[in-house]
Amino acid sequence: MQYRQRLKSRIIISFLLFGTALTAGFALAVVQLRAYLEDQLIGRQLSLELKNYESQYRHDPNNIATFSRIQGAVFSERKRANVPNNWRDLQNGVHTILDDSQSAFSNAYKLAVRKDDDFWFFLQYDISHEIKLRNRINWALIGFVVLFSGLSALIAFWSASSVMRPVADLADKLTSFRGEAKPQPLKPHFAEDEVGQLAATLDDYAERLTALVERDKEFNADVSHELRTPIAVISGATELLLAQDDLPEKAKQRLRRIERAVRQSNELIEVLLLLSRQEKQAPAHGEETRLVPVVEQVFDTHRVQIGQKPIALKIEAEADVSIAAPPAVLAVALGNLIGNAIKYTPAGDVRVVIRPHQVEVHDEGPGIDPNQAEHLFTRGVRGKDAPGKGGGLGLAIVRRICSLYGWSVSLKPGVEKGAVASLRFS
């Protein structure tokens, strides 16, 4: 599951929402409880007072107790026309009356009603003061919610900073180790907690990964060193044989084929060694490599691959382009692209178009699916109609070379047929 916010932000937001919800819930509960208790207490008291008021009235109508905030009214059967309109239809019990016809809450009261066949008794209790007090309490509670939300935010910031500090320190340590051949241990910098366990795990992983990389580098260096010796022997012997004047032409052609294979092997060893070390090698003394001679050399190397197929190799140079890269790197990159074009073309032209900052290799093969073009650069993936055997490594090597030198490579279908491989140098 992906998150858009940082971990610290999520902790702060969660803490703030929790504090605000808790405070708001508590305030709402207080308001509801106060309203319930007020209704129950006032209503019960009014019911008792109304009963006493009725008893006093029936005992002595001229001697009824008076109250500071309670007013009573009695209407006999013949005076019921004087009953206020909003009282007439009320049933026995306690009712809350809010009359906003005058100033706010001036006619807010509780009204206890008791009706029988002879008299209607009303007892009115002014609650405008309670309503004003209730509003003040509500505003006070809102203020407390805002206050405690602010306190929750402050505590959340402090808590998030404290909780995230070890994680942030671990991230800073990892960032500072970026690019080092052998990173320093992380565990000594952290306590024996979850972050410390994570640091220890990262140390173990880094140690095993470093050992693996070192073994890989040593293996590549050893293989390249051991391969150069027999290749040098083959190259020297080929030169000596080619120097003889009495060799038949057919033998010379075979020796030249061996010479090209030796040169190609040396280039491949050099490039693979660069890729394994992730080292970008520029030409000596800032020199640049011209593309046309490299393409001609690659053509010469791959003529054996053509065999008896009616394929013509063509160079279309729109400019004399030079690239700041060793000839071996360009030869391997272009060799894989041109080799694929020859492999997939049963007959026709394989054209290499050289433009400023770009080389295009056009073939006349079966073409490619545009949706699968990018997938072909994955290591071990071959084209659907690929002839012969292969490991699906050529395009993956080209992509690694481009990544090392900041270039880009792409595949797309040709205009009418075949495919176009583009190698951009900027």
What do these coordinates show?
By secondary structure, the protein is α+β, with helices and mostly antiparallel strands. The chain folds into three domains: 7-150, no CATH class; 181-279, Helix Hairpins (Orthogonal Bundle); 281-424, Histidine kinase-like ATPase, C-terminal domain (Heat Shock Protein 90), CATH 3.30.565. Helix content is 54%, strand content 16%. The protein has eight helices and eleven strands. The strands form three sheets. Strands 6-8-9-11-10 form a five-stranded mixed beta sheet, with helices on one face. A four-stranded antiparallel beta sheet has the order 1-4-3-2, covered by helices on one side. Strand 2 and strand 3 form a beta hairpin. It is elongated. 18% of the residues are buried.
Task: Explain briefly what this protein structure is.
The protein is α+β, with helices and mostly antiparallel strands.
Entry keywords:
3 domains; single chain; Sig_transdc_His_kin-like_C; 5-stranded mixed beta sheet; 8 helices; elongated; transmembrane; 426 residues; alpha+beta; Helix Hairpins; Heat Shock Protein 90; 4-stranded antiparallel beta sheet; 16% strand
List the helices and strands and how they pair.
Elements: H1 7-59, E1 70-76, H2 85-88, E2 93-99, E3 107-115, E4 119-126, H3 128-176, H4 194-242, H5 249-277, E5 289-290, H6 291-306, E6 311-317, E7 322-323, H7 327-344, E8 348-355, E9 358-362, H8 394-405, E10 408-413, E11 419-424
Parallel strand pairs: 6-8
Antiparallel strand pairs: 1-4, 2-3, 3-4, 5-7, 8-9, 9-11, 10-11
Catalytic activity: ATP + protein L-histidine = ADP + protein N-phospho-L-histidine
Protein name: histidine kinase
Domain Histidine kinase: 222-426
